[in-house]
Amino acid sequence: MNLAVIGVGYVGLVTGACLADVGNHVSCMDRDAGKIARLERGDIPIFEPGLDEVVRRNATGGRLTFTTDMARAVCDADIIFIAVGTPPAEDGSADVGRVLEAAMEAVRYIDRDVVLVVKSTVPVGTCDRVRDAVQALLRTMRSPWKVTVASNPEFLKEGSAIDDFQRPDRIVVGTYDTASLTLLRALYSPYNRNHDRLIAMDVRSSEFTKYAANAMLATRISLMNELARLAEKVGADIEEVRRGAGADPRIGHHFLYAGVGYGGSCLPKDVSALSRLAADNDEPLDLLAGVQRVNERQKHLLFEKVGKVLGDLSGRTIAVWGLAFKPNTDDIRDAPSLVLIRELLAAGARVRAYDPVAAPGVAAVIKDPDLALVGSARDACLGADVLVVVTEWREFKSPDFRWLAKTLNQPAIFDGRNIYDANYVQECGLRYFGVGRGETVIEAAVVPVTA
Ligand SMILES: NC(=O)c1ccc[n+]([C@@H]2O[C@H](COP(=O)([O-])OP(=O)(O)OC[C@H]3O[C@@H](n4cnc5c(N)ncnc54)[C@H](O)[C@@H]3O)[C@@H](O)[C@H]2O)c1
Ligand SMILES: O=c1ccn([C@@H]2O[C@H](COP(=O)(O)OP(=O)(O)O[C@H]3O[C@H](CO)[C@@H](O)[C@H](O)[C@H]3O)[C@@H](O)[C@H]2O)c(=O)[nH]1
């Protein structure tokens, strides 16, 4: 099929590249000329494992092209995907201005009947708005063409986006008519061969499904983070609790990790947009208000813990491992690391931070002579008092603890992701502070039992 994708961010570029990879001809359009110029040179503007290979393969083959010219992008297209951003507005709602803008601009240049697919995450009712605006435009233009709007929210995760797209748990499609459902079913058939993963529904339910899924994920994390705080107070270890509770298949082990709060471009903004939608409909979601409060508080946890141990932070040097909001991405949108670093700097500390890919993003938003973004995990620890682990990149999982114990001035690790074996870390000569696993619990665990 001939496809156009409007917006080549994390979702648009992955969608375009993967759909080209199964044989479609895809024209990707973005209004950011710099991004398009880089893509035309074969330079991928974001870090997403495996993406460069899929983009290059298909760009070289001529099935994947990039342009800033909407007319070029949509000519010949049977399906147009809208994958532009829907950032939070001041009142917490999702700003769908770009979606409407992109849809209207695309429709001006169509040269056949098309299905216009909204892939961006949008509040319930947005596709109706797009449909009405587009129909009005077509009438004004006296266009001979028919445009059918459909909803097809995306569920990929950054860091595993290619795999998520190519092996989806589900493909949610909301349509107003059966013809566009048939077309989308055909488009997604390469991913749907043995198990029918396509879940067809009405448009409003499809829009809602995306928010419901992210709200449930966020709730799970906030509940674990709240339980972690209590565990620490009452002398339990949240890691043991997680293993025990997660063994119940109704609960499951996935997405049950206490940490430093959820970040990224989706969970925070989508929970806030859903809360806004609920308030606007006189159906406030009390539970989600708590989920958001717990998450905001959790982002300060590491700073509080470091302060409790070191006291006055002025003149101290803190090593920070991990800046991206999660491993395997360069995305720092709403990253807990930014909250920690800003608090440390405001308290007069110096920060030496390392991340395998996300440092340039942080350099662009925090410009402070007391923040050094260094080239390796070890380098971050040189001259530092303590080490704080914010993002669980693979390369941080098995450090040389004895070297750390010799190098850090006040040998202590603050493990914001509970990735280390607390007993072993302590045996190597470091104090250990995790999330929901107080130091006292760990010490108690190594006291030999006397008969
Ligand atoms: N990032 C994710 O993991 C993820 C996953 C699922 C869903 N989503 C949703 O998908 C949407 C896109 O997210 P993203 O992270 O890819 O965003 P992004 O910010 O990475 O990319 C959006 C792109 O759209 C372009 N753009 C904006 N307005 C435009 C216009 N009028 N015409 C052409 N281009 C325009 C921007 O220049 C940018 O390159 C959002 O609604 C988001 O909530 C994101
Ligand atoms: O047990 C867990 C799992 C995740 N996180 C944190 O939660 C945030 C979000 O992680 P994740 O969901 O893996 O990443 P995203 O790429 O933001 O993906 C979410 O948001 C996307 C955009 O809507 C959806 O498509 C995905 O399905 C949904 O998982 C990160 O800060 C993680 O560190 C935890 O603290 N504990």
From TrEMBL:
NAD(+) binds at D30, K35, T86, T121, E158, K269, R333. Pathway: Nucleotide-sugar biosynthesis; UDP-alpha-D-glucuronate biosynthesis; UDP-alpha-D-glucuronate from UDP-alpha-D-glucose: step 1/1. Residues 319-422 form the UDP-glucose/GDP-mannose dehydrogenase C-terminal domain. One of its GO terms (biological process) is polysaccharide biosynthetic process. It is an enzyme of class 1 (oxidoreductase). Pfam families: UDPG_MGDP_dh (PF00984), UDPG_MGDP_dh_C (PF03720), UDPG_MGDP_dh_N (PF03721). The active site is at C266 (nucleophile). This is UDP-glucose 6-dehydrogenase. Its EC number is 1.1.1.22. Substrate binds at F155, L156, K157, E158, K210, F255, L256, Y257, A258, G259, G263, K326. Gene3D superfamilies: Cytochrome c1, transmembrane anchor, C-terminal, NAD(P)-binding Rossmann-like Domain. It catalyses: UDP-alpha-D-glucose + 2 NAD(+) + H2O = UDP-alpha-D-glucuronate + 2 NADH + 3 H(+). It comes from Pigmentiphaga litoralis. Belongs to the UDP-glucose/GDP-mannose dehydrogenase family. Keywords: NAD, Oxidoreductase. GO terms for molecular function: NAD binding; UDP-glucose 6-dehydrogenase activity.
